[in-house]
Amino acid sequence: MPDRHLTVRGVRGSMCVSGRPYRRYGGNTTSMDIPVDVDRRIIIDAGTGLRSLEQELDLSIPHEFTLLLTHYHWDHIQGLPLFGPLHDRRHRFTIYGVPRDDMGVGEILGGVMRPPWFPVSLGEAAAGVVFKELSGPITVGPVTISHTRLRHPQGVVGYRLDAGDRSVMIATDHEAGESSADRRLAELAQGANVLIHDGQYTEQEQQGERAGWGHSSWDQAVRAAERAGAQRLVLTSHDPNRSDDQIDELVGAARRRFPFVNGAHEGMKIRL
Predict the structure, then answer these.
(1) Predicted confidence band at 1 (pLDDT cuts at 50, 70, 90)?
(2) Which CATH class is domain 5-271?
(3) Domain boundaries, the chain
């Protein structure tokens, strides 16, 4: 049985970046995963960070992947077409998401993973793939997964993962400030050991021209952690134009308000 930690694979919002200013936090877009067994894995979002998971897996063993999508924007799905196990008939995928505009999960993903945008259509992928609409709680081995609707253009969901006495709440790409969505987040995240929350902006940015873009400021993330009674806050969905040193500044400001704050970085492990 593998050590059960959530591993952060990608932390950037909107687009991936590379170069010296981004080496400590990383430049890949959002993806996280949790081992359930040697051949079973839960994945949250399929951004470009998904590539590092493939490099670690022993793919000679048939795997079962449960992929939980928060939403369908490019930066959260662009790692999926190039994920090797999807093109290997030995592996199986169950992909969960929310229907949008009268389209189901498979239809949405299939609409972009197809020629001329990608040479292999989703329907031609060799692995066994099942699409499921999110409804009630999901159980994968010892992990129970709950979800709620949050606030982002074209919609987004947040996920809470519970295993034994440990819990992690993931609220990436959530724009705080709408009372009903903030209340749903607080209710689902109540008492979580760790809240992973969008903290892409400063307050000035979020209240200015970037209002409505679907992301929160670090101080809104702090308020969400306080409201939920979370023990630890991890800021994620870093602005692709913000350097590591600039992220350090945001994390430092957040720590002056809430002592247990980190910035999400590639390779970060969170016990579950």
Answers:
(1) low
(2) alpha beta
(3) 5-271
